[in-house]
Amino acid sequence: MSxxxxxxxxxxxxxxxxxxxxxxxxxxxxxxxxxxxxxxxxEKAQYEIEAPAAGVLTIAKQEDEVVEKGETIASLEx
Amino acid sequence: xxxxxxxxxxxxxxxxxxxxxxxxxxxxxxxSICQGESRFGLVAWSSTDRALVMPRRHERVTGFPxxxxxxxxxxxxxxxxxxxxxPVPQSPAVxxxxxxxxxxxxxxxxxxxxxxRRLGEPWCEWLAELGITDADLGSVPGAYCDGRxxxxxxxxxxxxxxxxxxxxxxxxxMAMLAHGAMQVGDTPESLVDVxxxxxxxxxxPQRFQAGSHVxxxxxxxxxxxxxxxxxxxxxxxx
Lengths: 78, 238
Description:
Oligomer: heterodimer
CATH superfamily of chain A: RNA polymerase II/Efflux pump adaptor protein, barrel-sandwich hybrid domain
Largest sheet of chain A: 4 strands, antiparallel
Largest sheet of chain B: 6 strands, antiparallel
Radius of gyration of chain B: 17 Å
CATH topology of chain B: BirA Bifunctional Protein, domain 2
Radius of gyration of chain A: 12 Å
Strand order of the largest sheet of chain A: 1-8-6-3
């Protein structure tokens, strides 16, 4: 089963874009639900993103890539 | 390590840690919310030493190791912070105020703009109380670490603001830390020069303008800041 990791779509108002500032887990690593996996920065705010489920991480957006709210940045295969 | 103050503690104290210990105070404040120990906290600090502070992602910038050496030799070691933005100088001329609180996901209080207004609007009200009637929130072209929610005086940047969000343990709620760094002493040139030295060292052509910044000491000469700071902290607590 695949679970998407997304940027929360209600984190900010308007059309500002964010950027992935850090992946805290390597591509292909196994993570547990609730593990901190990435940081996104928007409007000078660092937002920590957790794994919504357990599984093997596949990164879709690399560090320094621009992201929009609601966008999928990785997936977890379990 | 010095502990952050909470609203449960009597009195407000401007703490005087090193920059590194001050950043740890912010982290400790956020963590106290994440651990469910409290729903609100506040800390005010001004460092005894100085450093150029930036998010860790700057470590990936080409030329960073050399820039770090140059800034260190200038007496401005580089440290990393947990909030977003770009390089900001910390020194005894800067007062930092951070508030942390627990936000319910899905509520109107769970987005970034709300967090910035929760910090910035009481700050403007406090400045008005001190007689500065043209304080507001907004961006400042030419300022370092610019954002949409600086506290401005007549369009010049007085307070830079940033945030960090983290999940509360065992809950869907989020913990928000909103941080404001206010230049109170020295001249804007003295701090802008440090950031511009970093820009030059990493070969970034962008330069910042001292005229885009203002220190509180310029706007209110002779102000006994420690005497009036309590008013700001009380407004932020309301």
